[in-house]
């Protein structure tokens, strides 16, 4: 019973943090499939614990306790701390491009050790990016079967929509996968003028981290580096990360 209650509460928190704004109890019941009575009891406990706040008589949103919990938890994740020195060294190779480590977890993309020349390092920057516009996301999708990859893209479409910032981005998931296969060279996927007319994003696969797919990514203004330069430098930083036992 206790485990079931805990999982129900975590499920509601997940729905709340992914919502665009406050969510009513009735909508949470619809989305979760839980009985309204269980919703009310679970929300009451989360409000008492400071993890959820009541925005109005009928709607709820995440509260500061959840943010505090997440920040404290990030300190216990090696990916949030161990790669910092290597990533800051790598930032000097990439000029004004932003580097990060992208990890796939249960359909979400998490970004760790995000580093830029003038921005310092952010240990953890969360998730929430359309899969069809993400170089690491598409790199991971290419490892799946065609059926599973298309299903993942369709789930992303339902969550984030299907923005097409440039004419290069196909409207169809299968065509996106076909384009990504053609754009992958030497284990590196480069999306040039894909998420924007003057933008480039690239990713190289790293060894799995505790069973989860992970990639080193670089993104930013397209004019800074050519494809060959990006590819060579990603391989170099991959060597630093793997030979040093960081990944």
Automatic annotation (TrEMBL):
InterPro entries: GAF-like_dom_sf, HTH_MetabolicPath_Reg, Tscrpt_reg_IclR_N, WH-like_DNA-bd_sf, WH_DNA-bd_sf. Residues 3-71 form the HTH iclR-type domain. GO terms for biological process: negative regulation of DNA-templated transcription. The keyword Transcription regulation applies. Keywords: Transcription, Transcription regulation. GO terms for molecular function: DNA binding; DNA-binding transcription factor activity. PANTHER family: HELIX-TURN-HELIX TRANSCRIPTIONAL REGULATOR, ICLR FAMILY (PTHR30136), TRANSCRIPTIONAL REGULATOR (PTHR30136:SF34). This is Helix-turn-helix domain-containing protein. The lineage of its organism: Bacteria, Bacillati, Actinomycetota, Actinomycetes, Micrococcales.
């Amino acid at each position: 019973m206790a485990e079931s209650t805990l999982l129900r509460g975590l499920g509601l928190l997940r729905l709340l943090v992914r919502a665009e704004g406050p969510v009513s109890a009735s909508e949470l019941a619809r989305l979760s499939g839980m009985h309204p009575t269980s919703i009310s009891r679970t929300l009451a406990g989360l409000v008492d614990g400071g993890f959820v706040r009541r925005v109005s008589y009928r709607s709820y949103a995440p509260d500061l306790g959840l943010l505090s919990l997440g920040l404290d938890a990030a300190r216990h994740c090696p990916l949030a701390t161990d790669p910092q020195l290597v990533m800051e060294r790598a930032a000097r190779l990439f000029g004004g491009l932003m580097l990060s480590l992208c990890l796939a977890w249960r359909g979400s993309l998490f970004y760790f050790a995000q580093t830029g020349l003038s921005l310092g390092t952010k240990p953890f920057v969360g998730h929430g990016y359309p899969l069809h516009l993400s170089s690491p996301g598409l790199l991971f999708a290419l490892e799946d079967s065609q059926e599973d990859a298309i299903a993942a893209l369709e789930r992303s479409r339902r969550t984030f929509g299907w923005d097409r910032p440039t004419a290069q981005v196909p409207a169809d998931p299968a065509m996106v996968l076909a384009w990504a296969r053609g754009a992958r060279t030497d284990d590196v996927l480069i999306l040039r003028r894909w998420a924007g007319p003057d933008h480039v994003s690239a990713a190289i696969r790293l060894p799995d981290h505790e069973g989860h797919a992970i990639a080193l990514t670089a993104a930013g203004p397209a004019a800074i580096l050519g494809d060959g330069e990006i590819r060579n430098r990603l391989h170099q930083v991959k060597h630093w990360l793997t030979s040093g036992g960081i990944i």
